[in-house]
Amino acid sequence: MLHTALLPFLLLNFAVATAAPPLRPHFYAETCPEAEHLVRDVIKKNMEREPRSAASVNRLQFHDCFVNGCDGSLLLDDTPSMLGEKLSLSNINSLRSYEVIDEAKETLERVCPGVVSCADILIMAARDAVVLSGGPDWEVKLGRQDSLTASQKDADDIMPSPRANASFLIDLFSKFNLSAKDLVALSGSHSIGKGRCFSIVFRLYNQSGTGRPDPTISPIFRENLDKLCPLGGDGNVTGGLDATPERFDNQYFKDLMNGRGFLNSDQTLFTYPKTSQYVRLFARNRNEFLKAFVEGMIKLGDLQSGRPGEIRQNCRVVNSRPIDVLP
């Protein structure tokens, strides 16, 4: 999505920002051969300090790539002239672990300054968070450049709500050439991590404005959630997205089949015919899930904006600022 308002900005920066080469594995084999090892080491150390950081880091790829491609725009802090994505409706008080990406970038800058993009760090880190949680490993394609801007509005317009249903999500994912199977497999990233009570209070007490709980929630599970998330309670209290929130496995899908999905957008995958077949498949066959998840992550990582970019020195700010453009 390229807004005409951005054209002066992009044209101005053409001299310092050029189109990226095609993505490929081992992109940094000659320019920064230790890049992938260094990023994984940072992720491992952070997971040892806080296991929940694995899920937080993994989520960053989806939230970055869906908004104008995988370009690190998610990482930019707001400026007086730009409202970025961090405070968008889907990200504020939700996304975490930006400091983990900062640490990885600082580590790489000491070894090979100005070489590895923040956008590529996000891709490597998301993969490593899965691997270190017991999930599959895969070869990531690299060579992305970092965006020169970010847009809170674009994030608000694109990113789905925890209240979204499967039909809406299928339509949304199809816009990015991602299938219903990709949707269900990528939703399996919720095999690790926790969600906030804020995201499910409506399910517990006022589903679809009925003043009643979501009937698809298992009664026993609903009792547990009622205790965790009482009406009028602290919306920032968290609960596991599945029964094994620190282990990347297919328990998430088994939980959906038993009415134990934490988020509405998760449970609806089992109640909707076009997605329930994949929930059943992945629940009974872990290898099928892992294979589909890797395929989905690679396809997600291929999303590109086509805009010129740069290699940021600091993931939170662009290297150079645009000057005023005369009308």
UniProtKB/TrEMBL annotation:
Its cofactor is heme b; Ca(2+). Substrate binds at residue 160. One of its GO terms (cellular component) is extracellular region. Ca(2+) 1 binds at residues 64, 67, 69, 71, 73, 85. Binds 1 heme b (iron(II)-protoporphyrin IX) group per subunit. The active site is at 63 (proton acceptor). It is found in: Secreted. It holds the Pfam family peroxidase. Ca(2+) 2 binds at residues 242, 244, 249. It is an enzyme of class 1 (oxidoreductase). Residues 1-19 form the signal peptide. The record marks 59 as: Transition state stabilizer. Removal of H(2)O(2), oxidation of toxic reductants, biosynthesis and degradation of lignin, suberization, auxin catabolism, response to environmental stresses such as wounding, pathogen attack and oxidative stress. These functions might be dependent on each isozyme/isoform in each plant tissue. This is Peroxidase. It comes from Fraxinus pennsylvanica.
